[in-house]
Design goal:
two-stranded antiparallel ribbon; Recoverin, domain 1; 4 strands
């Protein structure tokens, strides 16, 4: 394709011209190959699931949505996208603000928060950084779902704490005002708590004064929230409305 003629100035020019065409042709082929590789890579990336999808692929989607919701609503109080001691401390502060620093609720919270935090770290903090990331939280609940006794004990202990915190009158029941106040300590708006209470107790707004649930009912609702895959289960709304 290239004729090198060295005895003629014209031939030399022609040779250079042909050589340039050859180089340009080679460069174009290379560029097209690169484009093809890039296009294939882009398609492959689009087809690949995200890291989160890979991490949580074995978790039922509805359970995962509830586990994420309680991670954000009840535990990640400072919105850092992870749970640490400061989140538990913020709950303690909210309890003091709502019920009073000298209240029984505050004494209960001060007594229970540190052991609950220590227990969660021991069971869920897989990378030992004193923080619980969402992936660690989901892994922890997967072990609970599979019947791991230590993990289930922690879930039960936290349930006992929540029930005692909400049950201000200590009569073994949670009524509407107690439920709304308890939800406020976790940042849930009263209108949301009102609607959730209606769904949980099957009570209309004007019947709220008569409605309540006892500890056995609360325990069942708690288990439904964490482990039921039935979207119609009443316990799905225990910590706010679940779509």
């Amino acid at each position: 394709l290239v004729t090198l003629v060295f005895h003629s100035s014209t031939g030399l020019v022609v040779a250079k011209f042909h050589f340039s065409i050859l180089c340009f042709h080679a460069f174009s082929c290379c560029l097209n190959s690169v484009k093809s590789v890039c296009i294939i890579s882009s398609v492959e990336r689009l087809a690949m699931p995200s890291n989160e999808e890979n991490t949580f692929a074995d978790v039922h989607p509805f359970l995962l949505s509830k586990w994420k919701s309680i991670f954000i609503t009840f535990f990640d109080s400072n919105n850092s996208k992870e749970i640490d001691w400061s989140d538990f401390y913020l709950i303690t502060k909210r309890v003091g603000d709502l019920y009073g620093v000298d209240s029984e609720q505050m004494r209960l919270t001060r007594k229970r928060m540190q052991p609950l935090w220590d227990g969660l770290v021991e069971l869920a903090d897989l990378n030992k950084d004193e923080k619980i990331q969402l992936a660690e939280w989901v892994d922890f609940l997967k072990r609970c779902e599979n019947g791991q006794s230590a993990e289930m004990r922690w879930i039960q202990e936290y349930m006992n704490f929540i029930f005692q915190l909400f049950d201000v009158s200590c009569d073994g029941k949670i009524d509407f005002p107690e439920y709304v106040d308890g939800m406020k300590t976790y940042g849930v708006a009263e209108c949301t708590a009102r609607r959730a209470f209606s769904l949980i107790t099957d009570a209309c707004d004007h019947d709220h004064a008569k409605a309540f649930f006892d500890k056995a009912t609360f325990n069942n609702l708690w288990k439904q929230y964490f482990f039921s895959k039935d979207k119609l289960a009443t316990g799905n709304h225990l910590f706010g409305l679940v779509e």
